[in-house]
Write a structure and sequence with these properties.
Length: 478
């Protein structure tokens, strides 16, 4: 009952945020930066991550070191400001034999320590089974530390759980079909589950997507193949490694999911499949924590797939309550789209790539979107741009600024960072109405502690320019 009441409060605040959103007659698309191989090439699958300084951070799978015509390079870690200043912070394979890793496919996530965490598909130090993939920690200044994995081919960044440890997946290793792993903040890695542990891989195989921790503390994810029809699965797994297959895709309802799920404000999970559906162009789906799946949209419903095709990336729920995502192909120019879809399944195509001469705006976005605390969306296209090796872009829908908390949970007395825009001069911070002491660190960061008497609810920051509300409810006592 308490969880149900919480979701009702979440929905009520989201409706309020929708009412407060700034009206916009049209969206504004901006190309922020183009890669040139030396500073990176082909941005990775995962969404960008906003740092404590308000900038966006991510990885490219190629470019950086050794970008001669014989080599694509080994990948980079980069920062781009909302104004478009691109800085390469680390070039992988900077050491002999690549013990620092190479080909970081899965982007990065921001940890509670202010560092970023990701994975490299290749490179790293060989373990006793001959695998050489790794998890890495990298500071906002580019100082990198690597931790070897017990399996191989991680294609996504690990997620930091409420217990402080990191959890992720690999597409290979284990019994050959991938694993779920845990890593302590100190770098100790443990394999929790090995896929294909059941006959004919009915539990799924080759998880390309990372994990999402639900409000029930379990992790939710997908496999790209396996299951009853060998079209992939949705699963839940506990921190102890007990896995429950929730759904097997059957091609008609989708196939080959590649991206992380998100848990929306209604408590359900939402995701995409790269292929399958009624028209073979992929789907957007909703699935309950118990495993009831509903297909919300089948791509390629319009002539020549004008609504998009092949959604490789996942979704983000914005402060207006809608879901936003990208497709790698389709759209007006066949080079991918940005779309908006309601939780009820009404889809609108917002932007079709290759709208600019020579595709200077980018094409084939494999990464999803992140909503920055300024209200705009940020993403990356895998090719196109002036260097034809990818771009970083923004899309404004006229949504107003808000704040994020890091982490989104905590106990009374625990420390929490608040990320935002124009926080200088803030006069008040409250947790679900309970005032909290705080320190303004910069225009983009406030440090605070969860006050005595705080209960689960939204964090509100009062600034000279207005009141800012957190995008999700802060969970007290998790």
């Amino acid at each position: 009952m308490a969880k149900l009441d919480l979701w009702k409060r979440v929905c009520a605040v989201l409706l309020l945020l929708v009412a407060m959103a700034i009206a916009s007659p049209a969206q504004t698309f901006t190309t922020l930066a183009s890669f040139d191989k030396a500073d990176g090439a082909q941005p990775a699958f995962a969404s960008l991550a906003q740092g404590l300084d308000g900038s966006l951070y991510g990885t490219t799978r190629f470019g950086g070191n050794n970008t001669s015509y014989r080599s694509k390079g080994y990948g980079t870690f980069f920062r781009v400001t909302p104004g478009g200043t691109l800085t390469t912070l680390y070039k992988f394979c900077a050491r002999a034999n690549c013990p620092d890793g190479e080909t970081p496919q899965g982007g990065v996530v921001l940890g509670t320590d202010g560092n970023f965490y990701g994975t490299t598909e290749l490179g790293g130090v060989l373990n006793f089974e001959g695998f050489s993939s790794s998890v890495f920690k990298v500071s906002a200044g580019g100082v990198l530390t690597t931790y070897p994995l017990e399996s191989e081919e991680p294609f996504s960044a690990p997620v930091q759980a409420t217990n402080g440890s990191f959890y992720g997946t690999t597409a290979a290793g284990g019994e050959g079909a991938g694993t779920v792993f845990a890593m302590t903040p100190q770098g100790t890695v443990t394999t929790l589950y090995k896929f294909c542990s059941t006959d004919s891989c009915r539990d799924g195989s080759h998880p390309i997507a990372g994990l999402t921790q639900g409000t029930d503390e379990n992790f939710y994810g997908t496999t790209s193949s396996g299951g009853a029809a060998n079209a992939g699965t949705v699963f839940a797994v506990t921190t102890g490694g007990r896995l429950n297959r929730l759904h097997s895709f059957n091609t008609t309802d989708g196939a080959d999911p590649h991206a992380e799920l998100i848990q929306a404000s209604d408590g359900n999970f939402y995701g995409t499949t790269e292929l399958g559906g009624a028209n073979g162009g992929g789907t957007v789906f909703q699935i309950t924590p118990e495993g009831t799946l509903t297909t919300l949209h089948n791509f390629c419903t319009l002539a020549n797939c004008a609504d998009g095709e092949t959604p490789v990336a996942g979704l983000v729920q914005a402060t207006d309550g809608n879901l936003y995502g990208t497709t790698e192909l389709g759209g007006a120019n066949g080079s991918g789209t940005i779309f908006q879809i309601t939780t009820g399944g009404t889809l609108a195509t917002l932007y079709s790539f290759c709208a600019q001469a020579m595709c200077a705006d980018g094409e084939k976005p494999e990464a999803g979107l992140v909503q920055g605390t300024d209200g705009s969306f940020y993403g990356a296209a895998s090719v196109g741009g002036t260097g034809n090796v990818g771009t970083v872009f923004s899309l404004s829908m006229g949504l107003g600024p808000f704040v994020k908390t890091l982490p989104t949970f905590g106990n009374v007395g625990g420390s929490t960072d608040i990320l935002g825009t124009n926080l200088t001069g803030a006069t008040a911070v409250s947790f679900n109405g309970t005032p909290a002491a705080f320190t303004v660190v910069s225009a983009t960061e406030i440090t605070t502690t969860v006050p005595t008497g705080a209960t689960t609810g939204f964090v509100i920051v009062t600034t000279p320019s207005g009141t800012l509300t957190s995008d999700v409810a802060f969970q007290v006592g998790r």
